[in-house]
Structures are given as structure tokens and as C-alpha cells.
Design goal:
7-stranded parallel sheet
Length: 254
């Protein structure tokens, strides 16, 4: 396949949207480097699905909110790729958490955990990798994709911490896109709406009905639809698309 020599790092690949991105990228022929920090068993399940889809890849473990851990593991990855004359083609910056509550009900730990994991990870993961991707020696360029949320655009009740983190990475991705445009490294955002994942599985029926009423397509999205969008943004066909926020939300934001 045309993409078999292109390696893509996906953070938070042990489940949900990250797993879907890994499987869809594998189907498109990319070699997927699947990051995890929690359950290794879940990460291994992602790799099983990648291989079942005919793809190849490997696992990498680090804490996206720990800057030193990110740097150590990603410097090691860069060195390993460099030894083989390779550079990452793509990074899908997906890892994230929620700690939802009304603003007055938030604990300091709820705010800090979400900001550290969702927003700080943008810097922690990309800083060790961007210089190599944007090097003048890298003639083919590359792709950086940030998975944010419509919450970062419109804000959601009970998600001031989450909305702040996702709004922050949208702005950061747009700024980075300007800096890297001359090096053929595109930077774009996918902003999912209501997607059926473990994160949304426990929504009570009444709340789900209210949420569906705000979606013109009257259904929740599937993780594979996020994965398919990511694969398009990784492709050569998306080479003139950068600094964009693509909402995959059934028309919720419009």
C-alpha cells in the first residue's frame, strides 16, 4: 500500500476515538504507533484489531501530562526512527479525559487533571517531535491532527474545565499551523460532537433525548466516523488543508 512506509503516532489509542483512529489508519496502510498509559490489556486489544484489519504497529507507553516522561519516551522513539532513516508522518493528538461538574461544584483536582491531560499534553507530546517533522531534511512534510470537541467551540454546561482545555488546543493548533505551513506540515482539528463511546455510554435516557434534539441528523456519531476523518486529513489529498477545525457532529454546531 502507498502508505506502508508512513508511521503515525496516536495518543490515547487504547479505546474510544483513539482506537477507531488506529484501526482506520491501519486499514489505509499506515503503520500505527499506539500510545497508552492505563490498561495495557486495552492497548493490546487495539493492536489486535489493527492486525485484524491487516495493519502493523506497536505500542508505546507514557503519561501525556508528565512532560519529562513524554520527552524521554518520544526522544527514544525519534532516535529509533532516525536510525532507520525515518520520520513520523503523522501525529493524532487524541488523549483526553473528562471530570464534568457545574463550575461551583468543581474541585481544584478536577480542573487541574483535565487541563494537564487535555491541554498541557499538546505541548508535552508535540514539543519533542515537531522539530524533526519540520526539519528541512524532511522534504515530504507531515500531518498533525488534534482531536478536540464541539465543547471547545460552543461550551457545554458542566464542562467549563473540558471546554477550556479543548478550546485551548483548538487555538494552539491554529497557531502551530501558521508556524509549520512553510514546511509542508499541516495542522488541523477534528471537533467531534456526540459520539457513542465508553465516555457517553452512561448518559441517562432523558439527557440523551435532550442531546439528540440539538442534532439535526438525530443520531449520535460512531467512532469510525472520527477515524475516517482523521485518515482523510493524514492523506496526500489533504495537503492543502491546514489551520481548520472540522466538526463531525451531525450538524450540531453548523
Amino acid at each position: 500500500m502507498a502508505n506502508e512506509d508512513k508511521k503515525v503516532l496516536i495518543t490515547g489509542a487504547s479505546g474510544g476515538l483513539g482506537r477507531a483512529c488506529a484501526v482506520e489508519a491501519a486499514k489505509a496502510g499506515y503503520y500505527v504507533i499506539c500510545h497508552y498509559n492505563g490498561s495495557k490489556a486495552k492497548a493490546e486489544e487495539t493492536m489486535r484489531l489493527v492486525e485484524e484489519a491487516g495493519g502493523k504497529g506497536e505500542l508505546i507507553q507514557f503519561n501525556v501530562s508528565d512532560r519529562a516522561d513524554c520527552k524521554a519516551k518520544l526522544d527514544e522513539l525519534t532516535a529509533k526512527l532516525s536510525a532507520n532513516g525515518e520520520i513520523l508522518w503523522g501525529i493524532i493528538n487524541n488523549a483526553g479525559i473528562t471530570r464534568d461538574n457545574t463550575f461551583v461544584g468543581l474541585e481544584d483536582s478536577d480542573w487541574d487533571a483535565v487541563i494537564h491531560t487535555n491541554l498541557d499534553s499538546f505541548y508535552n507530546v508535540l514539543k519533542p517531535l515537531v522539530m524533526t517533522m519540520a526539519s528541512r531534511k524532511n522534504k515530504r512534510g507531515g500531518r498533525i491532527i488534534t482531536v478536540a470537541s464541539v465543547s471547545g467551540i460552543i461550551g457545554n454546561r458542566g464542562q467549563t474545565n473540558y471546554s477550556a482545555s479543548k478550546g485551548g488546543i483548538i487555538a494552539a493548533t491554529k497557531a502551530l499551523a501558521v508556524e509549520l505551513a512553510g514546511r509542508n506540515v499541516t495542522c488541523n482539528v477534528i471537533a467531534p460532537g456526540a459520539i457513542e463511546t465508553e465516555m457517553t455510554a452512561n448518559i441517562i435516557p432523558e439527557a440523551k433525548e435532550i442531546m439528540l434534539s440539538t442534532i439535526p441528523m438525530k443520531r449520535m456519531g460512531q467512532p469510525e466516523e472520527i477515524g475516517a476523518t482523521a485518515v482523510f486529513l493524514l492523506s496526500e489529498g489533504a495537503s492543502y488543508i491546514t489551520r481548520q477545525v472540522i466538526t463531525v457532529d451531525g450538524g450540531m454546531v453548523g
